[in-house]
Structures are given as structure tokens and as C-alpha cells.
Amino acid sequence: MASLMKPDPSFYPSPRMAMKAAPETLAYVAAFDPNRKVPDAIAVVDVNPKSKTYSSIIGTVKMPNAGDELHHFGWNACSSCLCPNAPHPHSERRYLVVPGLRSSRIHILDTKPNPKKPKIVKVIEPKEVAERAGYTRPHTVHCGPEGIYVAALGNAEGKAPGGIFLMDHETFDVRGRWEVDRGPQQLAYDAWWHLGHDTLVTSEWGTPDTFENGLVPEILLGAKYGRRLHFWDLHKRKHLQTIDFGEEYQLVFELRPAHDPTKAYGFVNCVVSLKDLSSSIWVWHRDGNKWAVTKVIDIPAEPADADKLPPMLKGFGAVPPLVTDIDLSMDDKFLYVACWGTGDLHQYDVSDPFKPKLTGKVRIGGIVAQAGHPSHKGALSGGPQMVEISRDGKRVYFTNSLYGAIDLQFYPNGIEGWMVKLNASPEGGIAFDPKFFVKWPASHRPHQVRLEGGDCSSDSYCYP
Amino acid sequence: MLVGLGALHGVNPAMGWLFAVALGLHRNSFSVVLLSLIPIAIGHALAIAAVTALMAGAGVLIDPRIVRIFCGLLLIGWAIYHWRYGHRHRVRVGMQTGLWGLALWSFLMATAHGAGLMLWPALAPLCFPAGAPETDMSRPFVMALAGVAVHTLAMLSVTGLLAVAVFRWLGLGILREAWFNIDALWIAALFATGVILLVV
Q1: What is this structure's pTM?
Q2: Hey, are the CB atoms on B22 and A463 less than 8 Å from each other?
Q3: HEC-encoded secondary structure of B91-143
Q4: Which domain holds residue A374?
Q5: What is the ipTM of this complex?
Q6: Which of A78, A93, A376, B6 could pair with A143 as two cysteines, CB 3.0-4.6 Å apart?
Q7: Which residues on chain B are in Cβ contact (under 8 Å) with A90?
């Protein structure tokens, strides 16, 4: 494998320095066919306002099979390669690691020499992943101190426990299970860390049989989906602590630790409260020599006419906000919150993580609202879902599909894919870029966005 | 040569100064930078002392010429390993480490990088000037120890200077420009010292 003579120019020692990076010109977006008939794809979207093809898909990399359900993905290497305790400064940020959440197949895409035309250079078949890692349903991908960390939702048989496995960041060999001592942890979903505090955090969804055909109402109402956070010793790979959010809270999902490695707190979203269908944002933080969580934002459900609601919600007469993704700006100042149910995208000033202030709000799509966009006046389906922020914090991109089987439960008439962009002002406040609206080809729906050179959920840093 | 290798080891961010700077930044303290240098130097010295003592001991027990060949082959093997798998190290010490952890980290890094082996071409002629088994059993050990001391002092001076300069004046932005591929140089040095032992 190639190694560079100087560190990859997209590696930054600290988040402060990463904020000075040049604006991205390309975005990579995972797109899947909900009917599983044609292959899923990674789309290349032109996000350079000076370009003639701005706001359009300029390339598509088709996967070799159909039915993978591309979902989340990540880079082989990033700024954590500059860490002093485990330096790999001359690895390249070059390859996208793209798992199929349903198929458990992992694709490696080379974004060089032409970043507009990535090529598949390696495919790791599901059998190999299951044999070597002992896990299936790979989800979150993070580049980190020991290579590529992949959080997977099922074990080799598709049951509990889900967990994390490691991949070599240069050869892409699956190196095996990460955990040495998993303690009581069974369910898995997201994973990230505090490099400055030697701590890894994981969250929970459920086992594959409880979500691959959509959310199961009995399991949800029985509070049996994920509701816990797990804290681990990052280097001893040992489970340290569980925090249970309790019977009321279901689906504790996306982990957004502070980018500044000296800060020991982070944000996580809870999709639904069984009491009132509200969504909530929590902060995890130190409390003495333990971790603790505090609820800092509550987003209530909105009353709605039962006629306008999908069968699953008719009895409740309300639209739940369904906060299914959040993202934290590089300076740890703004938290973006995607309300996939109501169609809202909120921006909070979280300079004081315990006292968030709502500083901006837009609405697009939504189960009932079906709100339009400056450049698309008609009704829009789906709602704000995967959010990604540019490193300088000035641009925010998001797409509108959650997960094939669940899309259908909340948007039974189907989702027409789109991707939009917000301009964010440094003092707070967001607005649609009226020129950026990507209408997605009808065969596919877009999910996670990754920005060229890194973004606010791809890199971690060892220096403040 | 001992001093030169000391400087090479000292310059390498993966051998210590960068960790000292990082800990200083995390604890927001210049004295932490300075304090960290001590366990880093101790770990480095112990790693090198262990290897050279082994070599010296082997040289006393068997013919130092055989030790020379053995060490040469080992260095070349180490170079190949480092080239192929150098990126694969298990990380055992993190940013919350104390001074003992730091010494352990430095010991492991120096060992994994073959730092001690790399010194043997310079130390062998001092320990075994005749190139044959010594009659004075203590000489090889005394010389090896002296060599380790000189080397560590050079390493500590360079690494300390860099840590202070980066923490106080240069800033970490320098990493993006100045962190040249020392691993490539390192592999070349391992290979070259191995070859020197075999042919010179």
C-alpha cells in the first residue's frame, strides 16, 4: 500500500485546525433500492457552488450485488492517525469503507486518482465477515487508533450480542472482534469515543430480527429496543459501565462526543418516549469517577388529524418528532437535530452543553406537513434524516430516508429521495441554500452523507 | 554513531516528544511536558539496555561474530516486519496515562521499533574490540551500559528540545508540514544496520 512522505493534507492535529480546511467540493452519499431489485450505490454529488453541475449527482458507483442496503460508511484513515500514542501519519485518507447493513457485505472504494469516480477495489463477502469477526449487519464505521472500527448489530447468527470488530486500515483484512470483556452489553448500534479520556461509548438498537422487517410495535411498546449507553476502556477493550435510560425511553441512537479531546461529554438522541411520543437529547458527562446522563432537550409530538397519519400512529392523534440523527459542529458549539417525523431540522447553541438554546429551525417534508423547498414548491415526502456538517461549520447537508422497512411504516405512500443544504451563520441561524436541491433518482433513496476530506462525524482528534 | 542514532530516535515523534507535548496540552501545563520526558527516556533506555545486555551476554557466552550475524539477520527481519505490519500495533497506553504507563509505552515503542538492535553495530566494536570473545567478562557489559547512557542522553536532549520548541513556540500545525515519513527512514536504518553487521 502506498504511504505518503508527508502526512495526508486532510489530517489535522486538532478540531480547531480542521475548521480552517478548504470547503468541500464533493459529497459521497449512500443510496439504496428499497425494493432490493437493482444494486445500491454510492452517489457523488457536486457541492461546489462555482461548478456548472452544482447540486447534481455527477457520478454513481454501483455495488456488485442487489439488496445490500447501504446505510452508514466511513474513511479508512483520518485525523486520529496523528495521535501520539498510536501514530500512522503517513496512511492516506483514500478509501471509503461501505458496508451493506442488510447483506453484511463490505465494499472498499478507492477515491483516488479521480475523486469524482471512485472505484470498488475490494469486496469482503458476508461469510468472511461473519467468520473472522463473529458479527453481521455492519453499521457505523470509524477510523481510529487501532485501524477501522465497525459497529455491527448482530453476531454471526444474526442474534445478540452485536458488537465491534476491527479491520486493517491498509489491507482491509477483517481482524476480529474488538471486545475483550463485554460485560452485560448485548444490543449494539453506534460507537464512538473520547480519545483524550481513553473511553469508547456504544449505544443500542436491537437484534436484526426485530428491525429488518420494520419496527415491531410489541417490542417497542414493551420497551425492549435499545435504551442504554455502554462505556468502555478504549485500550483495555473492557466494559466499564452501563447507563439505562429506563422503561420510558426507546431507541438511544447517535453518539456525538465533543470533538475537543479534553472535553468529557457528548450528545445522544432518544428517538421516542413511550409516555408522550416526544424525542429527547441527552448529554453524557462525568460525575465523580463515573459517567452520568442528563436530559437537556425535549421535543414534543405535534397533535395531528388521524386521517393524515399512517396506520401505526392513527391511535395517537399526533406526529412524533422522531429525532433519528444529530450532528455536532467541529467547535462543539452547534448541535443539529433532525426531526424525521415532523420535518423539522433544529440548530441549538450548545456552548453550555447543559443549557442548549434553539438558534435556528427549518421545515421540509414531514409526515403531515409535507413542506416544500425554495426550489421545489410542491409537497415533499420523507423528512430531515442523516445530517452532515462541513468542517468549517458553514454548510449543513441532509437527506430524507431512514431505513427501507421503517420508511414504509411512517411514510406508507413511499419516499421520494432528496438531498438539501443549509447555510449556517457563525453566530447561529440556518437557511436553505435555494440553489441546492438534489431530486434523487426514483430507483433509490439517499441515506448517509460523507464530505470530501472529512466532516463532523468522520474524524477524531488527540490534541485540543 | 551512538549520538547520531540517539538524535534519530529523539526526532521520531513516535518515540516520545509528541506524547509529552500532547499530555502537556491536555493538562494545560508546561511542567507536564518536561516531567513526561523522564519516563519516556527511562522506558527508551530500559528497552535498549535489555537488548544490548542480551547481545553482550550472548557475545560472552558464544562467539561475538555469531551474535553479529544473528543480530544482522534479526535487524533485516525487523525492517521487513516494520515495512509490512508496522501500522498494526496494538494500542495499550492512552492519553489518561500516568508516568508509569508512559515509561511502559516508551519501552514498548522502542522495542517494537528495534531501537536496541539498531545500536548494536555501533556497540559491538566497543564491547568486543577484538571481534572475538573477551577475556574480561565485565568489559562488554560496562561498555554496553556506557553506550546506552550516551545514546539515551542524546535521545533525551533532542526529544526534549523538540517537545519544548513545539509546545512553546511552533505549535502543532507543524505536524502537518514537518512530519516527514520517518518510518520509511527508520526501515531503511534498520535494514542498513543489519547489512552493516553482516558484511562489514
Answers
A1: 0.95
A2: yes
A3: CCCCCCCCHHHHHHHHHHHHHHCCHHHHHHHHHHHHHCCCCCCCCCCCHHHHH
A4: 15-451
A5: 0.91
A6: A78
A7: 181, 183-184
